[in-house]
Amino acid sequence: MTTVKKALTGLLLIMIAAQFYRPAQNSNPSDMPNHISKVVVIPAKVAGILKKACYDCHSNNTKYPWYAQIQPVNWYINKHIEAAKAQLNFGNFKEYTTRKKMSKLRAIENSLEDGTMPITSYTLIHKGAILSEDEKQLVIAWIAALREGLEKNQF
Q1: For residue 57, which of 25, 53, 84, 99 is within the disulfide window of CB 3.0 to 4.6 Å?
Q2: Where are the domains of the chain?
């Protein structure tokens, strides 16, 4: 066997072995007592937008595509979700302090305004997550109302 064949065979064996290592997935379909919907009213249209564009990465319940079952794709996706949830987790929103809620809401608003969310690597595959200008403005208006309510300690 040539060195190239040995290397390719070794790489193939490593890839096959990697398929047997399955880290826990970010999936918890049970009742979510700390979800943002338990803290504030989310209009149906806004809830639909958040579900299609945000929740896969920023909640405790990701809907994984078929290709997420293949390693190392699964590792990449899970690392991305961990990083996203560290920034904002709609599933734990109730646990945030008022100050942190305000900060997270401002960050969502800024991300929508500057177009950094949802991220391009997500929308390349999930075309339905691409938000129209009207959808962005609807979420931004909802956030503005939430922030005003938080400032008045209504939540």
Answers
A1: 84
A2: 25-151
88: which 2 tokens? 């904002």
Q: What is the per-residue pLDDT across 109-134, written as a single tens digit (0 to 9) for each?
A: 999 999 999 999 889 888 999 999 99
At 20, is the secondary structure helix, strand, or coil? coil
Other beta carbons within 10 Å of 86: 8
Token pair listed for 142: 């909802």
Rounded to 10 degrees, the C-alpha dihedral 137/138/144/148 comes to: 160
Residue 61 buriedness (CB in 10 A; 0-12 / 13-18 / 19+): middle
Q: Cα–chain-centroid distance for residue 31? A: 18
* AA identity, residue 131: L
In the block, tokens 């997500």 appear at: 122
Render pLDDT for 3-30 as a digit per residue (tens, 0 to 9).
Answer: 888 777 767 666 666 566 666 666 666 6
3-state secondary structure of 140: helix
Find the helix packing angle between 133-151 and 44-53, rounded to 10°. 110
Helix, strand, coil percentages (3-state) for the chain, rounded to 5, are 65, 0, 35
DSSP assignment of 106-129 equals HHHHHHHHHT-SS-HHHHTT-GGG
